[in-house]
Model the fold of this input.
Amino acid sequence: MIRNWFKVASAEGSGDARSLLRHWILPITVFCVALGIVGVLVAASGVIPIKASSGHWAITRWFLQFSKERSVATHTLGLKAPPLDDRSLILKGAGHYEIGCRPCHGSPELHHPRIAHSMEPVPPYLPDTVTRWKPEELFYMVKHGIKFTGMPAWPAQQRDDEVWAVVAFLLAFPELDAEEYQQLVKGASRTTQQHESLTALEPGTSTIVVESCAPCHGLGGNGRELAAFPRIAGQRAEYTAESLKAYARGDRHSGIMEPIAAGISSERIQQLAQYYEQQKPASPAAARDRTTSAIERGQTIAHEGIPDKDVPACVDCHGPGETPRNRNYPLLAGQYAEYLTLQLTLFQQHQRGGTAYSHLMLRVSAGLNQQQIDDVAQYYSSLSSPVAR
Ligand code: HEC
Ligand code: HEC
Ligand code: HEC
Done:
């Protein structure tokens, strides 16, 4: 075959080129094959150290860093970051950072946690490095992880909004001192105030409420003022329990909630769900840009649906109304409008998933436009929860 190729090359090329090929192609090929064989033999002998404890040679470190920068730059061509200065987005990203990233990347109090410090490469303290990257590049690394380093990919590849929330936090991170960091990731929930209904719980479950859920959902399940985290106070226990199991199975997609739910036994999930149903929902949070006309338009959609778009009345499943509803259907009254809008948009884009009943929402959401989504979200967020039963 090589001989034929020489023939073609010599017919087209000059005499010089022909002799160049004759002289060099074969030796180079033989050299490369030999090098490959030697490489395999060296690896097979086991003498190459894979130990993290000795670190990389300077040239290997340079090469890996260089490849990372080039790869990230090329793969983010054309990617455009959404607005990232929203406080609620930063809060959401901060909550996740504390659980999912701090153990490797540290906090203002401890830049290099001891175990992560023994990794190769050592996960950097991010306030020192984030300014070197564009937001789109941070997004790419947080979403996809980095091979050969231990930097994991985002658990829920189906949706990008949560990853952008983490990027929003990373951009704000360099400005934070230790106290501001604590305030952002845990809020006032760190205060050891006792909640009456907590004492009725098994000690293990109350520890989960205080340590694992309160930093984001608040001790009583009412969230953290901004719409970063949904209200779960007063929600039907069946829906809450099934949602947590759906996260744990990966049927409902959230890089924030999936790892949390996966770590809780189904017995504890039942207890948590009961606890949150008993909590008193706070009076509805005023949605940003709330207007009476939007609430009225939303009310019409909720009570009558949109017949020509095949959208059923929401109240049939979500209330408010006198007749009891299926306890697997969530209450929406008093929920943050921005959260409702987000979930409806995720359903519409087939990125939501959920319990065994979640398919019901695919048809519903398909018939709504952006304005109708905003209106109906404003309507539900303006209701106080007890009305909904
Ligand atoms: C198991 C440990 C681990 C976890 C968990 C982890 N990372 Fe990393 N991360 C790493 C390592 C290791 C690197 C690679 C450092 C390198 O290439 O030099 C890295 C690199 C990065 C980089 C690139 C930094 C730079 O300047 O090169 C960013 C950004 C980043 N991680 C963000 C995050 C975020 C945000 C989270 C949480 C969602 C997270 N990481 C979770 C270990 C981890
Ligand atoms: C790091 C912040 C954070 C922590 C900690 C956290 N959550 Fe969440 N939770 C969220 C976010 C964000 C969502 C919305 C996710 C989505 O878009 O699906 C959510 C959603 C939920 C939902 C679904 C609400 C609904 O209306 O469908 C439930 C139930 C829930 N969380 C319960 C818990 C419980 C119980 C704990 C403690 C074991 C907990 N969460 C800990 C951030 C958190
Ligand atoms: C046939 C019953 C049914 C109708 C009608 C219905 N829904 Fe739903 N909806 C559900 C179910 C079931 C879920 C829970 C899905 C899951 O997570 O498994 C849900 C979930 C939701 C959620 C997410 C709530 C959360 O806490 O995450 C929103 C928002 C929502 N519906 C809005 C609406 C709106 C707006 C309408 C009317 C336009 C509507 N739904 C009509 C059954 C219905």
